[in-house]
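Notes from hallway chat w/ T.B., transcribed later so I don't forget. T.B. wanted the structure written out for a chain they're using in a teaching module, and asked if we could keep both sequence and structure tokens in one place. Agreed to drop them here.
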Amino acid sequence: MQLSVFSYAEIGSVAPFRTQLLKWVGNKQRFAHEIVAYFPRDYQTYVEPFLGSGAVLGTLSPAKGVAADVFRPLMEVWQTLKSSPETVKGWYAERYTLIRELGDKAKAYERVRASYNAGPNGADLLFLCRSCYGGVVRFRQADGYMSTPCGIHDPIAPRAFSHRVDIWRARLAGTEFHLSDFEGVMDAARPGDMVYCDPPYTHSQAILYGAQSFDIVRLFQVIERCKTRGVYVALSIDGTKQSGNVLCHVPFPPGLFEREVFVNCGRSMLRRFQLAGKTLETEIVADRLLLTY
């Protein structure tokens, strides 16, 4: 299938937003502004049904938005950020204090991870994703056990994290957050709305939350319904890997998408985790951005 590509004249200009709130593998923070540049100049409500770290949402900072995800602890973080940002600051500071109390970053991390695995919750997840290896929030398929080890970096200090909370709270003031499957929020989108989908990637993210049960065929069906009623949809999905030597096959239906763009993502953090820190000169990846307009 041959898709058309944008000319430079058709691409908008969007300022980068580098202030990351959550560390998350597959995070689009570094190049979210490139993705947003391909969105329509005029739209009504912005909809993001696979929220994750919210990098594209935070970069766009829509006047009116709807963001959703099926992962309850994650949505607990976002919903609390909107309703009570001071609570989110307290969650992080309380767990960060364990580093000093226990005298060891890894011990503090293990205690929080044990608490999370005993009862998944947003407060523990917040600290874990800021402290785990490369933001690889990995779950055991059999029982949902969060198994990622502690990262080599020092977690951000509470005062700096609190400042980030304030920045993000202001940028997301116009957004509603819902614990929901993608189909519900996408089917609620109206003509003229803009939907951005960043689902689990079929070729690379099977170890991550939600990926094992994700059905991309169902997503394509929902995108088709959106397109039919005049909703704009952009989809980030597998593009190239091994520095462009491998083009990932994605079985999208003929005629569903009008345009295709490749966005350079740099070196894969997931591969860094899987290869135990080996050099990644040949592991540069590019996302495929598919557009229905």
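Follow-up for T.B.: The chain has two domains: 8-70+172-291, 79-163. Might be a good example for the class.
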